[in-house]
Amino acid sequence: MEGIIELLHELLRPQRRSEGKWTGGPGPAMGPRMFGGQAIAQALLAASGEEQDGKLAHSLHAHFLKAGIAADPADYAVTTLAEGRSFATRRIDARQHGQLIFTMTASFHAPEPGLSHQMESPLPLDIDAALESLERWIEKHPEAAASPIFGRIQTRPIEIAPLDPGALFGNRPREPRTGTWMRLRQTGPADPAMQRAMLAYASDMMFLRNAMLPHSIRPGSDRVQAASLDHALWFHETPEFDDWLLYATSSPWSGQARGLNLGHFFARDGRLIATVTQESLMRPRGDALAALAAKDT
What we know:
Elements (H helix, E strand, L loop, with lengths): L3 H9 L2 E4 L2 E4 L11 H13 L7 E9 L9 E10 L3 E10 L2 E11 L17 H14 L1 H4 L2 H8 L2 E5 L2 H5 L7 E8 L7 H11 L21 E12 L9 E11 L2 E10 L4 E13 L2 H10 L1
Helix pairs in contact: 2-7
């Protein structure tokens, strides 16, 4: 695993060409499309690179306008919309081959004290139990462990341990909620801006599938056209991705060929680190579309 952390930093950190102009390199994906988390992280680091006063990102709101090409670089243009003593807001537009594929706003906040409270984790904060459960599941389902998606996930720079492996790899209907532990495969130094970018990258993993779980469909199935439409993230603390974080996710609604997903990142000691929302396209096709048509007649 030598050099994984450096490769991840290289993937996520765009290169500055001039004031407000950045280029992010290509990266791995599950297919020809650019991974949405990569675009979010690169855009966030481009916007962070324009910060001069030590403010850190506390929120971002992204819209995926056109499928990006995984094998090609993307150009990011950063525009400062507002700059104050406490907050700054920037817009980031991403283009490939001159076409606008992605736009995002990010808000930055200078650290200051404030009243605090937080929700508790809806899932048990026991990483050892999750790892043992995953090992037992793999032993009982060697065919799933040999699947291409399992291999790709296990070689990504973010290590994952799902609380319910069957929700990840199986096709049976399930409640629209899951939990996944995540951490870097290799530890290494990272400043607060990079820590936020790495969490932003990971926040698009294992997420849109929540809205599909009750319908016996998973991303990659030929029964559904799936894609992220928009993605929002709020940072409550600087993540520490060298240690495990629990990504507790759920879907309160789906319909009209869309699905809504909610997520919260928790540290092992129960601290709420970040909150995520995403709406995704989940357009039925093939036999799933035929079943819907038959139901309506």
